[in-house]
Amino acid sequence: MIKKVVTLGEIMLRLSTQDHKRFVQSETFDATYGGAEANVAAAMCNYGLQGTFITKVPDNAIGQSAINHLRRFGVDTQFIVKGGNRLGIYFLEPGASLRASQVIYDRAGSSITDFNIEEFDIDAVLEGAQWFHTSGITPALSDKAAALTESVLKAAKAKGITTSIDINYRKKIWSKEKAAEVLRGICQYVDVCIGADTTLGFEPKESDVVDGRITIAGFKDIFKQMKEKFGFKFIATSLRESHSASDNSFSALVYDGSEFYETKKYDVRIVDRVGTGDSFASGLIYGLVTGMSTQDTAEFAVAASVIKHTIPGDLNHASLNEVLDLMKGEGSVRVQR
Amino acid sequence: MIKKVVTLGEIMLRLSTQDHKRFVQSETFDATYGGAEANVAAAMCNYGLQGTFITKVPDNAIGQSAINHLRRFGVDTQFIVKGGNRLGIYFLEPGASLRASQVIYDRAGSSITDFNIEEFDIDAVLEGAQWFHTSGITPALSDKAAALTESVLKAAKAKGITTSIDINYRKKIWSKEKAAEVLRGICQYVDVCIGADTTLGFEPKESDVVDGRITIAGFKDIFKQMKEKFGFKFIATSLRESHSASDNSFSALVYDGSEFYETKKYDVRIVDRVGTGDSFASGLIYGLVTGMSTQDTAEFAVAASVIKHTIPGDLNHASLNEVLDLMKGEGSVRVQR
Amino acid sequence: MIKKVVTLGEIMLRLSTQDHKRFVQSETFDATYGGAEANVAAAMCNYGLQGTFITKVPDNAIGQSAINHLRRFGVDTQFIVKGGNRLGIYFLEPGASLRASQVIYDRAGSSITDFNIEEFDIDAVLEGAQWFHTSGITPALSDKAAALTESVLKAAKAKGITTSIDINYRKKIWSKEKAAEVLRGICQYVDVCIGADTTLGFEPKESDVVDGRITIAGFKDIFKQMKEKFGFKFIATSLRESHSASDNSFSALVYDGSEFYETKKYDVRIVDRVGTGDSFASGLIYGLVTGMSTQDTAEFAVAASVIKHTIPGDLNHASLNEVLDLMKGEGSVRVQR
Amino acid sequence: MIKKVVTLGEIMLRLSTQDHKRFVQSETFDATYGGAEANVAAAMCNYGLQGTFITKVPDNAIGQSAINHLRRFGVDTQFIVKGGNRLGIYFLEPGASLRASQVIYDRAGSSITDFNIEEFDIDAVLEGAQWFHTSGITPALSDKAAALTESVLKAAKAKGITTSIDINYRKKIWSKEKAAEVLRGICQYVDVCIGADTTLGFEPKESDVVDGRITIAGFKDIFKQMKEKFGFKFIATSLRESHSASDNSFSALVYDGSEFYETKKYDVRIVDRVGTGDSFASGLIYGLVTGMSTQDTAEFAVAASVIKHTIPGDLNHASLNEVLDLMKGEGSVRVQR
Amino acid sequence: MIKKVVTLGEIMLRLSTQDHKRFVQSETFDATYGGAEANVAAAMCNYGLQGTFITKVPDNAIGQSAINHLRRFGVDTQFIVKGGNRLGIYFLEPGASLRASQVIYDRAGSSITDFNIEEFDIDAVLEGAQWFHTSGITPALSDKAAALTESVLKAAKAKGITTSIDINYRKKIWSKEKAAEVLRGICQYVDVCIGADTTLGFEPKESDVVDGRITIAGFKDIFKQMKEKFGFKFIATSLRESHSASDNSFSALVYDGSEFYETKKYDVRIVDRVGTGDSFASGLIYGLVTGMSTQDTAEFAVAASVIKHTIPGDLNHASLNEVLDLMKGEGSVRVQR
Amino acid sequence: MIKKVVTLGEIMLRLSTQDHKRFVQSETFDATYGGAEANVAAAMCNYGLQGTFITKVPDNAIGQSAINHLRRFGVDTQFIVKGGNRLGIYFLEPGASLRASQVIYDRAGSSITDFNIEEFDIDAVLEGAQWFHTSGITPALSDKAAALTESVLKAAKAKGITTSIDINYRKKIWSKEKAAEVLRGICQYVDVCIGADTTLGFEPKESDVVDGRITIAGFKDIFKQMKEKFGFKFIATSLRESHSASDNSFSALVYDGSEFYETKKYDVRIVDRVGTGDSFASGLIYGLVTGMSTQDTAEFAVAASVIKHTIPGDLNHASLNEVLDLMKGEGSVRVQR
Does residue F330 surpass a pLDDT of 80? Predict the structure, then answer.
């Protein structure tokens, strides 16, 4: 039977400039749709699982286009609720070399900020699911959205479904303090915590910060504290080195509560940086829900994310075999013909 | 000395689909900027006058792009205030033949809805101005925006500046009842009323409505009532026959309080329908502020609008001579080489 | 319960030139996917029914893209078979004014030409269906495809499902003689015959052909013979007057075996002519399967097709309400805002 | 043996705005290459004859691109000379409806203005040719170019080659007086004169001008005077009615020195107006050089030009059969599939 | 006298995705034309030689467009035969970083698969030629194409024309075994063998394979065996290190039967990887046919290929001087102004 | 009070190929406007100063578009003169990897070559200015332009305004000898000399040239001679290492007459190389006119230029804060969200 993974979050219209143009130069935008949890649902379908996404979009052609985008790539959208005022938007100006990518959020008042669990049939949504996933962005959107996130996590947990969260702290949406407070409340219902950093309030020792970056040792220390506090089954973080807006190195660290797993590190040239974190989360979920070893899970997640860096848009259109080949070192970068 | 025309209103990001695509098919949007009063300010510059536009835009690259768009076409943008949360957006799906153009407004919570007269130097803005113009859209945006509209009209009136309003009723923003109430309050400060219809509460006699359209006689009757009630110096309306989304006929009726002036009627094939009403208003203002006769003013306004139907975007990039040539029948539609 | 309409046929990659360019000028192609029966399935979804499409596509990214295109617009694609050698292609050069649109077929050897009923679960496909539809193009593709078409029609008929065919004679695929022979065999399993002309071998009287076109009287005569011969419940044809490649008039004639129904005639300016026949078929099926009167069904079908003329691509992205509004004369061609 | 037609003139880089944009809105240009006589040479190849074009282009990549454009469509470019300073440019802003198309010439100092007959092997160029063609634009470019035009016409004439000129008066390049003086000198070497109007100094009677347009009677009168003065074998003019920048009617009048031939009149919707006159000239030359009757020649020329109105760019990519079909009324404007 | 190089092979329509998009994301394709031997013919013209290409394309606008593409860049296309069913297509998804480029072939049943030597005048084609070139792809297309390849090689050989083949093994078209069998038969008529690897059945010693790649020593060993077996005058292979889909290193090894020549190694960032092998072959042929030394020939071939990596499309638009400058280290990568 | 910087020079239409295409492949051009001194004026506005640009453009829509482009980004264009024959054009083919970018100038006879100081009100232009800047390109355009440059520098100097020149030698416009002669005459009115090299006639010692590049020691030696000869207050040069057309290293050396200041060196991947020198000049002027220390000025100029390498078009759309952040090492190349 095909595994079912349910995700909850916001889907936004993404408007990005073309050909490295800055916002002030742009007279056209590429329009696509994405969001942390929608991206995860689509990745699940890509790997052959059932990805079900729950959100709320306005009842107009823009909302419908967001649904269509997910449907196109196989996502089960039957439970998406139509209503509310608007689809959130984010403007993206992709950077290059020593110019960073810029995101302008225009998501205030989006439909999901006024969404509650009574608006859909939570039992039907979770029916047959093995996994439920959300991110730290969803509770950041509004108090109502935070309550919704907690309710759904609680419901999933009660049904024995594995739950995960990708912390994904966004400084343009809420403060560190508010984030810590809300997320610590939510984390009691979470089995797998992704994107671990200081957001939940665990600080590395001073000696574990070098050049402003937390060391592996520092992450290990934080992971242990997180395990201690919330009882997570798995804790994972990607390790990114941003040499420039065009070149990054990418690897990961995973903790299963007893052992730590480090992965191979890849050098990647970037086509589209957005959504690579969601690809990492998707890879982790895929590995764990299909029973891979922790090391393989971590390697799969990193390889998935690495390929996403080369694909425009929020979604990761890498196939299962492409990720497996890269992870096993069996892929080739030669023209395939 | 160059005449100065000041306008107040919202400027929005306009996202339109390309090549006749519907929203659900679109993966790119043409991005430009416009709004009823911004369009009028730009037209003034186009005709060689000084157009000064006052609005509030967010202090980010999208707000700056709106300013730049106006600046590019000569508008005096020095008084535009930066602040608030977001730039209003409207999505445009241009229609064709028997499919109407669709507009989806996403303008709630835009910066101008939280804007008041203390935020800028009203005396400096109006210094040396001959004309002040706004539309019925601005007071529709929020109660605060309605108060602002009234304050600025009052200030202009107090300085002896001619004032005008383009009624521009938008059913997707407010109800007929609310519109009538607010606009009737504002109209006491208005000299020239454009776009006259039933919004202000004056209804045509039953016999003056044929096939759902108000007849010339009906408009004349309404105009007289409007003159009676508000003491407008000029009342004008364009007369549009929409044969399809691709073909319209266009003419106008103007009333100077004693005489009625009807214009030549043009058949136009449409490239871009949006902003053609603003072009009509711009033409009226240009004619009156530069001392044309009422008949010439009306003909100029209609000819300006007719050319705008062939130009993509909100702004009218027709030159003064092009409008005069068309109005005088001296233009040619042959290739100019 | 939502009505289910199943269709069988080929889906092709459509490569069309841009901006009125001829093939020899083109260095880019717009790429979309469509085919007579796929277009009908998508229209069903558009109107709120369940559209299920059965076909065979190659197991590569081009085949997957065809599936994705249908999935995006709501089509149930779960029964589509992957295999065979290639996706059929058609190149389209849209005409204008006195230059006709050109189609170059490159569909020989496509996956569906080597497809048989054992490759999918016909019972599952037809489970719960009210209607089965195909076109005269499918049996034209190969002898195997003709056998498949007959088998599926027979199976549907045996289950009491209403069956329809759109004759759609394509001279570039097969001869008139072969078409007549094959289609006459198939028609015994058909309830509703669309696109009636001389393909099935019924000729109009000489006096019923004026200027090379069959008159209404001629069609009525042919319809009666068709009814006589095959016992169709409904026979319908659209009536197109091609004033130019840019302007057509469009109406229809429907026969329910006792009465003839003529519709309103519309003048349409063309954005995209391809797929307008499929829109007419879709409208007929929608009307009949949802229980509209025959006159309303005919009017709905014509209105649906009229709107399709304004939409690029094979699929008809007109909403149910837009079609109903046009059909009832309640729509407006003014900007909707 | 394939007929050979030689033409002499300027080829320019054509930069046209996209999607009906005006110059001041444009941030991209479509770049193609054309010019009156180059367009004729390409049309000859299109119809299966040999078209040889002689010109001078700068020895850089822009000059090479002009050559490549002609070569792509079969023109014999082996005699084109490389040298001089620059390729002439013309900017094109296609009009629509009541807005005329605009051309801005930037052709001063182009390579052909400094070109003389010693720079190429005139005997080799004309070897085996049946026809030599040029236009009134070439002698307008510089005194040197006028001398070159006369020399080549004289050389062709001396070899018994039929010669033609398309008057093509361009007010942005030279005055009516200068044109008349230069062209009257050149016309002594011309057999076929196309585009007849008042440029050569023959004026219609006052009663032969109605609404600013010369009547058929007026043209006949002028033709007779032209025949009288220059001994032309054929004189032809297209008759264009410009209803708008989007819609024209098109027909022609040809005079063989004894009879006048009027053609069918077509209503055309315009995709690209530029080069339609050259298509008319091409059609005339094709008809005469291949031995069509004068009436057929005239009808062929008009049909060729009509199709060109629907094709973007300067060149006419209509095939011989397409023109013949339209001319004979055997074509169809239905989708060809 | 200008040297003449004749090539035989397939020309395909190449449809590539834009802006790094994957196939499943693409709604437009860039359309160009190319194929191993067509690319070589065009390169010859680029360097000032005469390149004559012989192939068979369908007699429709797509076939004509392929011809036009070659004609545009100077290729002699007069002997190309029109007929058969279709133009072969290949879909290209350019990779980036750690995602490899993907090619989907859709070339089965193309016109050239049903092509034989009687369809054209082989003597006229080879008249005055110094060189004949083909690739291992052509005999792979069909048994008939293999027979054709052998016949033409034999005919060229008989006329004393130097012959070359680029092995170019494509695993998506035929098996290693079939390739070895067919190519070994053909190689008896070949003077210069390019792209040497294990396809012809010569295996390197185990110690000559490091990290899955054949060492220089291994190639030398294979070259000697090839020389022994087939008596080739020259054997050459490019040496590519694929660091990623974006970055490669490129050099070459050439054997003249007695000495081995290694070239400079370049690091290249890739714009378009396809056709770079054909550029290498073109460079070799150019060097040998114009009498360069073997070392210079090898350096020229490598430099030509290096520049091709930066040019979109199949063809190499590098000029002779650009290649010479790079090869001599005299070029500059600074802006040339 | 806002500082005012006045610049004088040519503004050109820039036509660049898209997507790495070569000129001979291009059928569209990106159209923007720029020139050394216009770019500096725009950068001033970008950093919050007043940039006033003086030039002459033709009185047509292309000239107006150049003005609009500057106006859009805040430049004071009120003194720009309209007249003359044409706007200069430069064609740009952006290179990649080992293929250099190519510029084809088509600027002969542009309006500014026929421009003199009487055509505008020099006192009004310079009123309130702190700085006047031009480049060595302007006097290269014509003798009249050289005279104009000298006159304006002299006028500025007389008013106590700081003057600067960017040497910017362009071998495609004039000879080294002519440049040296003209520039040495002009330099007597210059305070700050940018882009120092051998153009003014100062040669480095042989031992100061390594691998064809002048060493730091060599530049220091040249700077001292320049100071000696012309009494410049500041002399500056950027130091570029062109690893390829895609990757450069960039730093600078500044001399204040007593000390030398070297900056940090950045590795940059190039999006658009044109205008980066003007960005360096702009940064120097900004630093000096706002009173930064020499070291900070140099670092600011380099950081500004580095960001420009990532921005398409001639103008530098980096904000003041972005430059300051990069210069201080406080920026981040991570996605800003």
Answer: no
Report d(CA F79, CA F81) in Å as an integer: 6
Question: Quick check: F242 and E334 CB within 8 A?
Answer: yes
Residue A184 pLDDT more than 80? yes
C150 close to C189: Cβ distance less than 8 angstroms: yes
Q: Are D73 and E68 an interchain contact pair (Cβ–Cβ within 8 Å)? A: yes
Degrees, nearest 5: CA angle D41-D47-D49:
65
How far apart (Å, rounded) are the C-alpha atoms in residues F106 and D109? 11
Q: Could you tell me the pLDDT band of residue E198, with boundaries at 50, 70 and 90?
A: confident
Q: Chains that contact C by 3+ CB pairs under 8 Å?
A: A, B, D, E
- Nearest chain B residue to D274 by CA distance is B335
Name the pairing type of β-strands E12-16 and E28-34: antiparallel
A39, A313 Cβ separation under 8 angstroms? no
Question: 10 Å Cβ neighbour count for D202?
Answer: 18
Q: Evaluate if pTM is beyond 0.90.
A: yes
CA-nearest of B248, B289, B253, B250 to B269 is: B248
Which candidate from E31, E86, E104 shows the least CB-CB separation from C26? E31
Contact B95 C326 (CB under 8 A): no
Helix, strand, or coil (residue C203): coil
Q: How are beta strands A260-262 and A247-255 bridged, if at all?
A: antiparallel
Instruction: Band the pLDDT of A194: cuts 50, 70, 90.
Output: very high
Q: How many CB pairs under 8 A join D and E?
A: 14
Nearest to C65 by CA among C33, C112, C28: C33
Q: Which residue of D has its CA nearest to B19?
A: D19
CA nearest neighbour of C23 among E58, E36, E115: E58
Cβ-Cβ contacts under 8 Å, E69 against chain D: 72
- Which residues in chain B are closer than 8 Å to D245, comparing Cβ atoms? 310, 333
E43 touches F: beta carbon within 8 Å:
no
Chain F interface includes B320 (CB < 8 A): no
Burial of F33 (0-12, 13-18, 19+ CB in 10 A): buried
Tell me the pLDDT band of B212, cut-offs 50, 70 and 90: confident
Chain B closest CA to C335's CA: distance in Å? Answer: 5
Of D29, D61, D108, the CB nearest to F31: D29
Estimate to the nearest angstrom the gap between the alpha carbon of B168 and the chain centroid: 7
Domains along chain C with CATH numbers = 4-328 (3.40.1190.20)
User: How close does chain C come to D334, measured CA to CA in Å?
Assistant: 6
Where do runs of H (alpha helix) occur along chain F? 36-46, 61-72, 122-126, 143-158, 176-186, 216-230, 276-289, 294-308, 320-328
Distance between CA atoms of residues F27 and C18, nearest Å: 13
Give residue-wise pLDDT tens across range C44-72.
999 999 999 999 999 999 999 999 999 99
Which subunits have 3 or more CB–CB pairs within 8 Å of chain D? Answer: B, C, E, F
- C189 to each of C150, C153, C162, C281, how far by Cα in Å? 8, 6, 9, 18
**Residues of A in Cβ contact (< 8 Å) with B31:** 15, 26-29
- Name beta bridge partners: C81: C56
pLDDT of res. B304: 98
**What would the pLDDT profile of F164-197 be if each residue is shown by its tens digit?**
999 999 888 999 999 999 999 999 999 999 987 7
**What tens digit of pLDDT does each residue of B145-190 get?**
999 999 999 999 999 999 999 999 988 899 999 999 999 999 999 9
Contact call for A69 and C68, based on CB within 8 A: no
Q: Choose the mutation target among F333, F334, F336 for the interface with A, i.e. most A CBs under 10 Å.
A: F333
Cross-strand partners of A236: A194, A254
